[in-house]
Amino acid sequence: MANFSWRRVVGFLSFMVVTSVTFPATSAEKIEVGKAQIFMPQRNASSTGSKMTIYNRSEQPLIIREVTGERFKQVMLHITTYQSGKREMHPVDQITIAAHQRLALTPNTSHIMLMGFTQPLQMGELVSLTLHTNQGLVPVIARVVPMSIR
Fold first, then answer.
1. pLDDT digits (tens, 9 = 90+) for 17-50
2. CA-CA distance, 139 to 124, in Å (whole number)?
3. Does residue 12 have a pLDDT over 50?
4. C-beta pairs of 21-24 under 8 Å, 24+ apart in sequence
5. Backbone angles phi, psi at 18, to 5 degrees
6. What confidence score (pLDDT) does residue 87 get?
């Protein structure tokens, strides 16, 4: 007959309970970024733009306050406006996406400007960015694409 021990049974059940506990997802896990792209800068340019779609699947507004990336000396949030048919870009402190909504960031709307390259960008390469939000850090992987894809 096998050696039976209640202590072993209780220990095993305790282990199973502890290892099967799931923790609720953090808010940032409810944020998705799709089709993130960085435009290949024109020759001798010191900055470029990007585009991406951000899906806020959380119960609260998503506020992007900052974007960082090791490949850039400065990253700014911008909004594009049109005055008398002329396109103008203006820096903004934040970009907000309502709960359960999505926002396409494009050069003609709200977008991310990338300035001061720490090394040249290569067509097709993948570049890491991080969105700093009220819901935590959101990692983004963007592909460098031709400027004509706007």
1. 333 333 334 456 799 999 999 999 988 889 999 9
2. 19
3. no
4. none
5. -65, -45
6. 87
The CA distance from 47 to 71, in Å, is 11
Question: Measured between alpha carbons, how far is 88 from 99 in angstroms, rounded to an integer?
Answer: 28
> How far, in Å, CA of 27 to CA of 57, rounded?
9
Strand 72-83 vs strand 136-145: parallel, antiparallel, or unpaired?
unpaired
Query: Which strand (E) or helix (H) includes residue 145?
Result: strand 136-145
Domain 27-149, classified CATH 2.60.40.1890, yes or no = yes
> What does pTM read for this prediction?
0.77
SS3 43: coil
Closest by CA to 60, choosing from 16, 9, 96, 23, is 96
CA gap 134, 28 in Å, rounded: 9
What confidence score (pLDDT) does residue 27 get? 55
Q: Give the residue among 107, 108, 125, 109 at the shortest CA–CA distance from 40.
A: 125
As a whole number of angstroms, the distance between CA 13 and CA 85 comes to: 70
